[in-house]
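Ticket reopened. Same input as before:
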Amino acid sequence: MKEKVVLDLSHLPLHATGTASLTFWGTSAFMLIEGSGFALAIAVYLYLMANAPSWPLNAPPPDLLPGTILTVLLLASLVPNLLVTRWAGQRDLRKVRIGLVIMSIFGIVPLVPRIFEFPALNIRWDDNAYGSILWVMLGLHTTHILTDLADTLVLTCLMFSRHGDNLRRYGDVEDNALYWNFVVATWLPLYGCIYWIPRL
Amino acid sequence: MNSSSTAQVLDVEVEREDLEPRLRRTWQSGKGIWGALTTVDHKIIARRYIVTAFVFLALGGVLALVMRVQLAFPEARFLSADRYNQIFTTHGSNMMFLFAVPVMEAMGVYLVPLMVGTRNIAFPRLNAFSYWIFLAGGLVLWIAVALDAAPDVGWFAYVPLSGPEYGAGKRADIWAQMITFTELSALAVAVEIVVTVFKQRAPGMSLDRIPVFVWSMLVTSFLVIIAMPAIMFASSSLILDRLVGTHFYNPAEGGDVLLWQHLFWFFGHPEVYIIFLPAVGMVSAMISPFSQRPVFGYLALVIALIATGLLSFGLWVHHMFVAGLPPSGSSFFTASSMAIAIPAGTQIFCFLATLWSGRPIFKTPMLFVIGFLITFVMGGMTGVMVASVPLDTQVHDTYFVVAHFHYVLVGGAVFPLVGAIYYWFPKMTGRMMSEKLGRIVFGMIFAGFHLTFFPMHILGLAGMPRRVYTYPPELPWSGMNLFVSVSAFVLAAGFGLFFIDAIRSLRSGKVAGPNPWNCASLEWATASPPPPYNFARIPVVQSRDPLWQASSELPVATGLRVDRRELVVSSVVAAEPEARESSPADSIWPLVAALATTVMLIGSMFSAWAVVWGAVPIAIALTCWFWPKRTPEDES
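Engineering reply: fixed in the latest deploy. New output:
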């Protein structure tokens, strides 16, 4: 078939940024998948609760301290996370590097209260179904913290390498920050379920 | 801002006759085994997916024949009860998870980028990864079959049968982990298709110009994204119950066996539409050129696709009518199950109107479209019947249900799929399949199908239950069963002839040319088979049927680089060009990551710690996968 040239694209940028970028949409789609997973975990929790004669089932409610400390830490991490997003948008390499180091720390520090959260649940996964869903919810969320932490650490190394000063990397930093917001946002309903519903 | 400084070469800077060789050098996969293992070309990966899925179809078909031999006579001793349990479980699991879903997604992987006028699928390395994971999942199941250790708990693996108390050994774990493999691969492909459709459409292909097949793959992908986490949660929690002693499905410790059924069917019902909606898209694509008019009711069809997708999440409980649910719940799910007949009916009437107002040409693909209309409507009718609680209570777990879902799945999805292979084979291979053999294939498959499955309705009404390995001669089922078994061989012979036709045509079929059926969508604007870069110049879309409107000259865009893999990123609604984006180069890391994931998933059937140590190689492989390599593709 013969061609007729009707459009010149040579003026377009060599990389799509922000909400135009493919990775933004890919990250969003993965958040939808994982968000469905978290929603299901909560649905299972409520389903088991609806069937149980008492809740929590044969256990005292989880201790509040470690989970609440973790929640405060995660909420506090949103401030540097939003700053990193802004700095990446401004392509400010120096600030992005500092921000990523801070975010790496904010990825590691919550793991300390998280380690204490599991015994604070006051029940083991193999005691009963209530214990099982609690451990799965906490385990699922811990996996997400670890995944994003690994991603942040690799990205931090990358930004300190010769590959750092590149629009693509700034986009990666923005997507990574978006994903961390998701990790924090999904924790809040889980925190409510694990710690507060048993106290209602 | 550039991370490296290579000489940029635009397509307008090279002569037209040099353009395609230059593009080929940039886009072509490597040679030999290394090239085969590292390729990220969506067409090559989709071909592998399709061939692998059809191999699984053939293997699953052999299992079906083996079952039919066993059931042909009362009290037959061809198979033991245990073998029979393994075989019907493997048949169902294989057909759903290793054939139907992957083959539909694979057709999307091949066709969606071509139909939206782009050069590769979004996230092509993820695409390569998804194929290797799918292959590994298939091997896990079939190696278990060979070792006499296949799952024996039915394709929906109900607890407590599949739980730690009754499901001894590793059979149920193999089922559950096969699910994890195939769902991981399906989810990856769904993400790729969503992003390709949203962001890589050719300039001008606004939402109302997207081909119906592409719409169907988009809706399907969203169904996968929202439904499949449920089965992954279910299969993972089943493994946890079996391996580390959780109690999700143990009523003695606060668990609930019906929870399994809810989770399974919250996935399982959308699953039917994950298989069926791409088939609707295929029929929409095929019916148009063979009716010599655009498909009737484009908007109605697209809305019906979306409506079906939404409603499919509100039906799952109709699989559980006999499980003892509150009557109000049953009434609600009866109503919603009947409601889905409305969008399904809309689709059928749009197809009938297309045929009615067109000038039909009855080539092989069109024959399968007709076969689809007849068979799927029959399956839909029995679907409305079993949506009603009293009738469902009567026929639940009988051969009536076996007949119903084979009518819906084979009639609704496999007929369009086989038609689609006849239709797109010339595009994929450059050669036509035989029209003469095609008609025989259609006749054998259509007749063989109805002769096999229609009597099953009657067997079901006569009380024959599903999943029995034999039956006593006193029951009035033996004559009909023998008839069904003989007919099954006719059906299988039809598929055998289809495979022979495909293999023969690959070598000696008539050369097809770019557009042998005179079709309107963009995949027919390029050579058959398409070159590695799909389009030398990206088409510019000005109507819903671009090739029919541009009868002599195709509007195209220039200004892309030829020295790196470059494609156009466009806006979600209007498809206005936003950037020239690079497409990733070939890489071995998706394969390495898939191998590492396979080791972790298989290890986790035996020890929960495998998840911990298995994560380390996966993390290393993923880091190598994403680490920049100073190629032109990394420039921005």
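The mean pLDDT of chain A is 96. The radius of gyration of chain A is 21 Å. Please confirm and we'll close it.
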